[in-house]
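Researcher: Structure prediction, please.
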Amino acid sequence: MRLFFALWPDPVTRDSLAVTADRLRKVCGGRSPAADNLHLTLAFLGDVPAIRLPELENLAAALVREPFVLHLDRIGYWRQQRLVWAGSQSCPRELAVLVAALADGLRARGFRTERRSFKPHVTLLRDVRTAPAQAACKLAAWCPTRFVLACTQATNHGVEYRVLGTWPITGIAAAL
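Model: Predicted structure follows.
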C-alpha cells in the first residue's frame, strides 16, 4: 500500500484551492489534481505492507494535535518538478510540532521518512509549462480539523486517494 499522512481541507478551503488551480492552469499549463485529491502531505511513507496499518493508526492516535491556523498566502513553483503549489510563508508552531512528532514516531518504528525540511504546501498543478507570475497572494486562512492516513490508488481515471483513518486536531491525544 502506498501511504501518506496528510491534512485534508474542508470543503470551503478545497473549493478555494481548486478555483485557484484552475485559474493558474489557464496561465501556466499543466494539469491540476481532482479537487477531492487536494491535500497537504505531513509524511510520505511509500509502500507499506497492510499488516503494519495498526502501528500507524496507534501512532496517529497517540499524537497531541494542537489546533492552528495555516495562512495560505503564497504561490510557489518548483522548476525541477514542474510543480505549482499553494503554501504559507511561515509554518505554525503547532503544525511543525505535529510533523516532527509524526516523523520521530515513524522513524522509531522503522518506517522510512524524508529527511528534507518540511515546507507546508498543497500541490495545485503538475507538468507546468510556465512559472506563475505571482508569488504573494491571499488564498485562505485554513484551520485544519483533522489529519488522515491515506492510500494512493491508480484508477482508469487517474490517481485517487482513499482515506484509511482520520484523527481530529483537538489539542489532546486519544486515550490509549
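Model: The chain has a mean pLDDT of 90.
Researcher: Thanks, that helps.
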